[in-house]
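Tip: read the tokens left to right.
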């Protein structure tokens, strides 16, 4: 279980991500969506896509870019949770996209189409 300080830092990062996403034209549908398979930081709509967004914040680049923190295991968790969301909300007709928002000392970076479900299906 994350410490209160780490949880607070995560919330601040997600708030910065929300501001950047809204500024970039995303319509926020849900924050911190949880289901039995995991959690998705932000669910939004943008440019005709239903977008599942993972937010990663790093105070230092000592352990690499926040964008590199979304590894294969994390991607699989996000994809499973997204599939659950699609089934639960009966929205299989939507185009789906997985984006990552990286936050570090230099600012906020939105990476659209950061990964695809097919990439992680076998890995």
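Filled-in amino acids:
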């Amino acid at each position: 279980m994350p410490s209160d300080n780490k949880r607070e830092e995560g919330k601040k990062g997600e708030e910065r991500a929300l501001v950047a996403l809204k500024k970039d034209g995303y319509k926020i549908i849900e924050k911190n969506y949880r289901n039995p398979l995991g959690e998705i930081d932000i669910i939004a709509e943008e440019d005709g896509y239903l977008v599942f967004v993972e937010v990663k914040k790093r105070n230092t680049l000592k352990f690499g870019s926040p964008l590199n923190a979304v590894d294969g295991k994390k991607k699989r968790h996000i994809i499973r949770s997204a599939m659950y969301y699609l089934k639960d909300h009966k929205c299989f007709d939507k185009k789906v996209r997985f984006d990552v928002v990286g936050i570090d000392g230099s600012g906020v970076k939105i990476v659209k189409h950061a990964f695809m479900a097919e990439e992680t299906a076998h890995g």
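The chain has three helices and five strands. The radius of gyration is 14 Å.
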